[in-house]
Amino acid sequence: METVKYLLNEDRMPTSWYNIAADLPAPPPAVLHPGTKQPIGPDDLAPLFPMGLIMQEVSSEREIEIPDEVQSIYRQWRPSPLYRARRLEQALDTPAKIYYKYEGVSPAGSHKPNTAVAQAYYNKQEGVKRLVTETGAGQWGSSLAFAGALFGLEVLVYMVKVSYNQKPYRRALMEAYGARVVASPSTETNAGRAILAEHPDSTGSLGIAISEAVEIAAQDPDARYALGSVLNHVLLHQTVIGLESLAQLEMAGDYPDIIVGCTGGGSNFAGIAFPFIGAKLRGERDVRVVAVEPAACPSLTRGQYAYDFGDTAGMTPLVKMHTLGHGFVPSGIHAGGLRYHGMAPMVSHLLQLGQFEATNVQQLETFTAGLTFARAEGILPAPEANHAVAGAINEALRCKEAGEAKTILFNLCGHGHFDLQAYTDFQAGKLKDFEYSAEEVAMALAGLPS
């Protein structure tokens, strides 16, 4: 009998998150205060984050224990299944073995609750009453709304306006969990009003939504800001994905030659790849890692490695990352969770160290890949996850051309059940590709802080 899915018992769930900072050959550049341009300390972040998360942000310990209460909630869906994509292999006629870790089994339908639950827990521990955040496609917003409901926290979500209009059911899910959802840019904040004054028809961006959320959180002593990607503690929480995958591949008697992950801010890519990159850094096993991003928002492949703000209004600390410029507003592609101007500093640092390679794909190619996957494996991926699917298919076809039976692992970070309108539009020929000229990229980068 050919095994299709590899399942871990709950007693084999990771009890610690993996911190790749412990294995780096060189530390990442310092985070700078937006006003003084000097390295920031924990106290500088206290108005936005609870100290439990701040200490994780700056930690260099290899393992950070997962609190019992967080583990007990994780057990609602963790460990998530690892699948061998045997039917996709047959459809592609490839000698490659393809595995995918499926995070769509969480209550919110994606990998995002792995950090949302942890962030809600640490905020609740410090007496925080409400959380303020941004969201693109809504996977992060719905995950934080779910976590807020579990811990009795109010949740306010600024949702990028193009996704607010494209994805009403993701918005409805957030509201079902008890969150309030506002289309961004809005008239509720100084940042939002300033954008609308200059661009009344703005479709928004994650950078703008972050500015609004940070502004509100900084003004309310009972509130804190929560971020679904980019920061070290967020990437840390997602490593349960890769840690489980290591154990499941051991069950399969296999180890990946190639790991593929989609990238927007870097959280799900880090979740699947960091434990394997860590093993590589420690000299244990080699692996080739490929990050796949949208051609419409190509921070890794066309951005500049430089200090930049994480938000449009310039209120966040300055971090060194691959960026298209904090004023960059991407086109309204359906992969709303990947429409961010920058990349996680830790992911950016690892790219500079040559630990993985990056590529980009167009929107139409990703939807074609998603339908190919759905018709073989039965799971309809989220538009964001389709970038990883497209990357994995491309690698499998290269194996076919070269006659190489390599093992490919990718993270299917969420399902597309709330994205059916996007698939309808794709099959009706209504979607299109977006490409930025060198001049447009240069213009976006011209606003980088000195």
TrEMBL record:
Pathway given in the UniProt record: Amino-acid biosynthesis; L-tryptophan biosynthesis; L-tryptophan from chorismate: step 5/5
KW Amino-acid biosynthesis (keyword) present: yes
Required co-factors: pyridoxal 5'-phosphate
GO cellular component: cytoplasm
Reaction equation(s) it catalyzes: (1S,2R)-1-C-(indol-3-yl)glycerol 3-phosphate + L-serine = D-glyceraldehyde 3-phosphate + L-tryptophan + H2O
Domain Tryptophan synthase beta chain-like PALP: 76-414
The protein's name in its UniProt record: Tryptophan synthase beta chain
Organism: Candidatus Viridilinea mediisalina
Taxonomy of the source species: Bacteria, Bacillati, Chloroflexota, Chloroflexia, Chloroflexales
